[in-house]
Amino acid sequence: MTPPPDYGAASAALDFAPPALPSRTSWRPNWRRIVGTGGPGLLIAVGYIDPGNWATDLGGGSRYGYALLSMVFIANLVAMVVQALCVRLAIATGKSLAEHCREAFPRPVVLTLWLSAELAMVMTDLAELVGGAIALKLLFGIGLVPGVLLTSAVTFAVLLYGRDDWRWLRRLVGGMILVVAVSFVVLLWLAEPVWSDVAAGLLPTGQLVSDPAMLLLGIGIVGATVMPHNLYLHSGLLAPAGRTLTNPAKRRAIGENVRDSNSSLVLALLLNASILIAAGAAFHARGMTEIADLGQAYELLNPVLGGQIAALLFAIGLLAAGQSSTITGTLAGQMVMEGFLRLRFAPGLRRLITRLAALGPALLYFAWAGESDTSHLLILSQVVLSLQLPFAMIPLLSFVGQRRVMGEFALGRAARAGAWSLALLVVSLNVVLICETLG
Fold first, then answer.
1. For 142-154, how does the pLDDT look when each residue is reduced to its tens digit (9 = 90+)?
2. Are 125 and 330 in contact (CB under 8 A)?
3. For the chain, which end, N or C, has fewer CB atoms within 10 Å of the first or last residue's CB respectively?
4. Which residues, including other chains, have CB under 8 Å from residue 262's CB and lie 6 or more apart?
5. CA torsion sign, 161 to 165 to 167 to 173?
6. What is the pLDDT of residues 168-213, one digit of tens each?
7. CA 404 → CA 92, 228, 398, 401, distances in Å?
């Protein structure tokens, strides 16, 4: 009998012992099985609730109420498809996306893709560091520069001195997501949205076409949702699981990991929707349609909702979201360096390099622009991420469609056409977003 294969395995960069794949092969959903093998999906999901997404959802909810909920839903569907392709590539081949790029392309192309991935990592970390610093300022009155330094130090300490144990990291990140979830459940209860209007917002509206400003916000929600670093992180986490599996075991592992990814991304969908619904109920319903800054939202929540806890919960949720996202961003940076360049440093040194790469731009921005305007920095990070997405998404789709790479797990003709159409849509939306933002 084949021993239980590693499922949801972390790469060598994580130094974790992953959980084993259950032997059950029933097609029926099994919540004990999903929760028991959860982990990679949780680490991916936090990338979809980072402070950059908060700012976009907050602006959409305050300006248009619940009308852009349909775009949040579409964005998460795109994320599910792309992350499922990462699962397929990693388990079918036993290699991460970065490793495939290193082996398939000439050296100049590999270096270009590596630099693009590193820039995307820096921009991702930048938004998350700034979001954490904003939360510390709102909670404790700490300046943004000391807050960025403190957030960096805490993340580095967690990754350096935390136990190298998969269950420990899963509990840590899961606990932070739980904090975010509880915060917004209470905020929704305080905001008292009209749920019939919320349900209507799930259907796309014709105003998306007639209102250019609304279309731009909708594109921002979709175009900035799929993070390039998540493609490298997810495939890097799962690649070791495919190296020792038979093809039938790989097929089961792909199905299990796709369910893990989808269930975690449903949670991210609910959290992003909660941010937009809370903004719509608290601000748009009261005629406050220009709330796009996280600090401004914090200052207005208590007076608007008539309670003393609303703003506190908002800041706590923001801190937990930013901190959990910085952890996964740092891990993704390690996998990118190892996958593209085969550079393997001591874990502490690798994590320090990744942390300093994001810390420098944040400090330079505050030294140049001051601490009064963070919204432009968050927008800049999302625009740069949008520019980097094709450099990760196009190679991924190319690999999963090649039979010589994937063997029997290669996508069929119809699936390839659908995946490339989706990629074209996302890239087109990003181009429009970038042009409109720069304009």
1. 888 888 888 878 7
2. yes
3. N
4. 41, 80, 84
5. positive
6. 777 777 888 888 888 888 888 888 898 988 998 888 877 777 777 7
7. 12, 25, 11, 9
